[in-house]
C-alpha cells in the first residue's frame, strides 16, 4: 500500500516538472543564420534609402561592362549536333581524326539545267562552265578536293572537254562513273567538294561565303544553269541562322507575355516597371557574362534566356507585392528596411536551392547540358542580387513622393495635436 502510494507521488512529481528549457546557447545556434541575414537586409535597406544614387551608379556601370559580352555570345554559336556530344565519345574522336587527316566535311553544288538557254547538262558549254567553277573552287585554302562531271569527261577525252554533244553522249554511255555526278535525265549534276571546316560554325560560314562569292564572280560566264549549295555543312549554317532567330524570338515573346500579364495583374506602371526591371537587368548581365566566359549557344542552351525570365519574374513580383503591403503600415523609407528583413531569407533560400538543382546538370557528360546548368544557375543568382540590391532602390525612388506626403501628413498631425 505504502509502495503504491510512494510510486503515485513520484509519478505526480514527474508530471508537474517543467519540460527542459532551451538554453540561450542553443537558441543562439539555431537563429544565428537568420539574424545575420536579417541584419544584412536591414543594413542594406538603410544604405539603399540614404544613398540610392550610389546604387544606381553601380547598376549603370555593371550594365555598361556586361553589355559588350552579348555580341560575343551571338557570334559564339555552334549549330552542329556533333558539338552537342562529348568530344571523348569514341565515334566523335574517330571522326575528328579522319577530318584532321583527310578532311571529312562534304559540301555539294547542285547544278540545274532548267532554263530556256540551258536544257541539258550534257552540252559542251555547261560542262566547260562546271570545269571553270571546279578550278576556281580549288583555289580556296579550306577546300581540299573538287570532283565533277567535267573531270570524268577530261580523263576520257585526253584531258580536254569534248567539243560536240554527240561525243559527250558517247562518253556518258561508255563511262559508268558519270552516274555519280549526273542524273539520267541529264538536267541535274553534282559538284562534290571535300573541305576542312572542323564542323566549326565560323569556318563553315567562311567557306560558304567564299563559294558564294566565287559563283557570283563567274556569273558572266554562266550558260544559263542555276547553282545552289547544299550538304551537311550548309545544313549547319542554316541551323546557326535558325538558332539565332529562335533565340531572339523566344526571348522577345517570353518578355512580351510576361509584360502583358504584369499589366493585367498590377494595373500600375510603377509596379509593372519595378517587377519587369528584375528580369531585364538580370538577363543583360547574365548574357553578357555568358559571352565573356565563352559559353556557346547550341540547340540546348538557346532556351536559357526564356527560362531565366520565367523563373526570375517571380522574384520581382514577390518583392514588389510585399513592398506594397508593408507600405500600407510604414512610410517608404521604413518599408524598405522592413522589406529587406522579410524577403532576404526567402529569396536566398529559393535561389540557392534552384541554382543547386541546375548545377546538378554538371554531373552529366553532355557539354551542352553542362553549359545550360552553368548559365541557368548564374542567371538565378544574378536575379537574386538584383532583387535584393537594386529592386528596393527602384521601389523607393518610385515611391519617394509618397515619402514626402507621409512626412507632411505627420507634421500636420503634430501641429493639430
What's a concise summary of this model?
With 417 residues, the chain is an alpha+beta fold. The chain has 15 helices and four strands. It has a four-stranded antiparallel beta sheet with strand order 2-3-1-4.
Can you tag this structure with a few keywords?
417 residues, alpha+beta, Multidrug efflux transporter AcrB transmembrane fold, Alpha-Beta Plaits, 2 domains, four-stranded antiparallel beta sheet, 4 strands, 6% strand, elongated, disordered N terminus
Fold and architecture overview:
With 417 residues, this protein is an alpha+beta fold. It has 2 domains: 37-66 and 268-407, Multidrug efflux transporter AcrB transmembrane domain (Multidrug efflux transporter AcrB transmembrane fold); 88-237, Multidrug efflux transporter AcrB pore domain like (Alpha-Beta Plaits). Helix content is 69%, strand content 6%. The protein is built from 15 helices and 4 strands. It has a 4-stranded antiparallel beta sheet. Helix 3 (52-66) packs antiparallel against helix 14 and helix 11 (269-293) runs antiparallel to helix 12. The longest helix has 35 residues, at 232-266.
Amino acid at each position: 500500500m505504502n509502495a503504491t502510494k510512494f510510486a503515485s507521488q513520484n509519478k505526480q512529481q514527474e508530471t508537474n516538472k517543467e519540460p527542459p528549457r532551451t538554453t540561450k546557447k542553443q537558441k543562439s545556434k539555431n537563429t544565428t543564420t537568420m539574424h545575420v541575414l536579417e541584419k544584412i537586409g536591414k543594413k542594406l535597406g538603410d544604405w539603399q534609402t540614404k544613398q540610392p544614387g550610389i546604387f544606381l551608379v553601380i547598376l549603370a556601370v555593371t550594365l555598361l561592362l556586361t553589355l559588350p559580352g552579348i555580341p560575343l555570345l551571338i557570334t559564339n554559336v555552334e549549330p552542329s549536333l556533333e558539338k552537342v556530344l562529348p568530344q571523348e565519345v569514341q565515334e566523335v574522336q574517330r571522326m575528328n581524326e579522319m577530318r584532321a587527316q583527310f578532311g571529312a566535311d562534304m559540301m555539294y553544288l547542285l547544278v540545274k539545267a532548267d532554263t530556256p538557254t540551258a536544257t541539258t547538262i550534257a552540252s559542251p558549254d555547261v560542262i566547260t562552265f562546271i570545269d571553270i567553277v571546279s578550278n576556281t573552287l580549288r583555289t580556296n585554302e579550306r577546300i581540299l578536293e573538287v570532283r565533277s562531271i567535267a573531270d570524268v569527261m577530261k580523263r576520257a577525252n585526253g584531258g580536254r572537254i569534248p567539243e560536240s554533244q554527240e561525243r559527250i553522249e558517247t562518253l556518258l554511255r561508255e563511262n559508268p562513273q558519270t552516274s555519280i555526278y549526273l542524273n539520267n535525265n541529264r538536267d541535274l549534276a553534282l559538284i562534290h567538294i571535300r573541305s576542312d571546316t572542323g564542323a566549326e560554325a565560323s569556318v563553315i560560314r567562311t567557306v560558304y561565303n567564299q563559294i558564294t562569292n566565287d559563283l557570283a564572280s563567274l556569273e558572266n560566264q554562266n550558260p544559263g544553269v542555276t547553282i545552289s549549295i547544299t550538304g551537311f555543312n550548309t545544313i549547319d549554317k542554316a541551323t546557326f541562322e535558325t538558332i539565332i532567330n529562335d533565340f531572339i524570338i523566344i526571348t522577345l515573346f517570353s518578355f512580351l507575355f510576361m509584360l502583358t500579364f504584369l499589366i493585367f495583374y498590377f494595373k500600375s506602371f510603377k509596379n509593372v516597371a519595378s517587377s519587369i526591371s528584375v528580369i531585364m537587368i538580370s538577363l543583360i548581365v547574365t548574357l553578357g557574362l555568358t559571352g565573356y566566359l565563352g559559353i556557346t549557344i547550341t540547340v540546348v542552351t538557346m532556351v536559357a534566356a526564356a527560362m531565366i525570365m520565367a523563373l526570375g519574374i517571380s522574384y520581382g513580383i514577390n518583392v514588389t507585392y510585399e513592398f506594397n503591403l508593408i507600405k500600407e503600415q510604414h512610410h517608404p523609407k521604413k518599408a524598405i528596411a522592413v522589406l529587406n528583413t522579410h524577403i532576404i531569407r526567402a529569396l536566398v533560400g529559393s535561389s540557392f536551392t534552384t541554382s543547386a538543382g541546375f548545377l546538378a546538370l554538371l554531373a552529366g557528360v553532355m557539354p551542352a547540358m553542362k553549359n545550360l546548368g552553368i548559365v541557368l544557375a548564374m542567371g538565378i543568382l544574378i536575379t537574386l542580387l538584383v532583387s535584393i540590391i537594386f529592386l528596393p532602390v527602384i521601389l523607393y525612388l518610385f515611391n519617394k513622393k509618397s515619402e514626402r506626403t507621409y512626412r507632411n501628413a505627420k507634421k500636420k498631425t503634430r501641429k493639430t495635436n
